[in-house]
Design brief:
The protein is mainly α. 52% of the residues lie in helices and 5% in strands.
Length: 173
């Protein structure tokens, strides 16, 4: 039976995971990721904290996840036409955002202000501010969102191919 050097393969996966996460974090700190209204950078945002890129333990895969609302940052509201979860969750998220940003209520309740914001979103949409890649649609190749993945994976595949073919070379030599 041929035995692949699993330790080296996992090391390569971990290194690729680290490089992907590093590149994503770098893009969160880039000028493209600055909120043009507040001047705040996304480098210390809930969105950045939601990014998980890890080599799957026990397998040969990299697991990548990012908050559901990344879709709106890339596409804007009108283009996607939906949001994750229920309408109640969406409204609740807006209310939390109102509290977090200390939005002035001017004698109204948080719920009333949230409803006004939701109405504005439905009417005007949310303008996208893509900073990781060129776009995203459900089921699309992640490299269209994370445009830097192609080069990273190509470099990774060279070493991985070497690790996977060594047992075959040894067997037939």
């Amino acid at each position: 039976m041929l035995k692949v050097d699993e330790q080296r393969l996992r090391k390569e996966l971990n290194e690729l995971s680290r490089l992907i996460k590093e590149e994503i974090y770098k893009r969160f700190s880039s000028p493209e990721a600055v909120n043009h209204k507040t001047g705040e950078n996304l480098s210390d945002s809930d969105l950045m904290r939601s990014v998980k890129v890890d080599a799957e333990s026990g397998g040969y895969a990299i697991v990548f996840s990012i908050a559901d609302y990344y879709e709106y940052i890339v596409n804007g509201w009108k283009k996607s036409g939906n949001f994750p979860g229920t309408f109640g969750q969406f409204l609740s998220n807006i209310e939390k955002w109102i509290r977090k940003k200390n939005i002035p209520l001017n004698g109204r309740t948080e719920n009333q202000v949230a409803w006004a914001i939701v109405k504005s979103i439905y009417k005007n949409g949310i303008a996208p501010r893509p900073f990781l890649g060129s776009g995203y649609n459900n089921g699309e190749d992640p490299s269209k969102v994370l445009v830097f993945l192609d080069e990273m994976v190509d470099n990774f595949c060279d070493e991985t191919f070497q690790i996977l073919t060594e047992p075959l070379d040894a067997f037939f030599s």
